[in-house]
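ok trying again, last paste got cut off:
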Amino acid sequence: MRVRKRSGATEPFSRAKVIVGVRKACQGRPVRSDDLALLAERVEETVRASGSAEVAAEDVGRAILGPLRELDEVAYLRFASVYLAFESLGDFEEAIAALRADASQAPGARGGRPATAALSTAAAADQNTATPVGRPRLPTVSALQAASGP
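nice, full thing came through this time. structure:
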């Protein structure tokens, strides 16, 4: 299968190229290399399902958005902001509102990553205070106000 770029040039589909592009959006996020490899596999399956010998680069980008959104919402916003050419804060606000609306529709949903992949064991026991693995828990505004006194 070949990918037709915006310039008109074509090149073979490459999972590695998908991973490189998505890795940039995932920089600093709790996303494992295995997660990226699975995402690239899903993207390839999606574009191959079209049955076409040649697909547009835009179709590959669209195929990345869904799996990336499920993997990590922050990485999704980063990727979408470039791929969809966000031009204003309003574009981000709309994308965030859509993520929130989808999360509220899903029973028990707490973001794009499965709890087992994104939460520490202790945090998973208390869903109200869950934090991603390896990330420090930040104090709440009320805790900061209480600590500073009247």
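cool. Confidence is low (pLDDT under 50) at residues 110-150. The beta strands are 2-4, 10-12, 54-56.
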